[in-house]
Amino acid sequence: MPMNNEKKNGGLWQFVKFAIFGTIGGIIQVISVNVLYFAMKGWTTPLPSFLGGIFSEKVLGEGNSCWGYIVPFFLSNLISQIFQYVQNKKTTFKSDAPKWVFGVYIAVAVLLMFIITWMQGVLNNFLSSSSSRLLTVLAPTLAVVIAGQIYTVVMFPLEKFVLFRKARG
Q1: Could you state, in order of their start, the residue ranges of all structural domains in the chain?
Q2: What sign does the CA torsion over 27, 28, 29, 30 have?
Q3: What's this model's pTM, rounded to 2 decimal places?
Q4: Helix axis angle, 100-128 to 67-87, nearest 10°
Q5: pLDDT tens-digit series, residues 121-159
Q6: What Å distances lie between residue 106 and 25, 74, 77, 140, CA to CA?
Q7: Contact assessment for residue 14 and residue 93, using Cβ atoms and an 8 Å cutoff
Q8: Listed residue (35, 25, 52) closest to 118, CA to CA
Q9: Which DSSP letter does residue 98 get?
């Protein structure tokens, strides 16, 4: 039995829309992180020991193991994730998922934020230590792009097959 084109290309088209909203979310995040960072850059209060061990200056770079670095990243990421959740639920997956799904989504997003914040620091420090001047200059951007791919790898299948899947019937 042949599939119609909408069903056959639905997964690809959903992925394209997911990527578009991810890009818009990334732009929102870049703008908001810069605004928040500028507003909070004087907040140099050290992180508590349980966070300071994970988000150390050795990992994140000198001067970044403080609330003024972590809070802007988390808030900007949270704003971006909420935008993407709403758009993907409404437009990409056309879902009528119950409200509790948002809580699951945010819990996974927060866990990913911790992992990605740590990974960005590790990648940035690794790439910055290169003998290539170009790689050193591009290190922060490359770290953000590489670490950000974790969202796509985790969130697209989570949203498509778990959180926003269509009820069978």
Answers
A1: 5-163
A2: positive
A3: 0.78
A4: 130
A5: 788 878 888 899 998 888 877 887 788 888 889 999 999
A6: 15, 12, 11, 25
A7: yes
A8: 52
A9: -
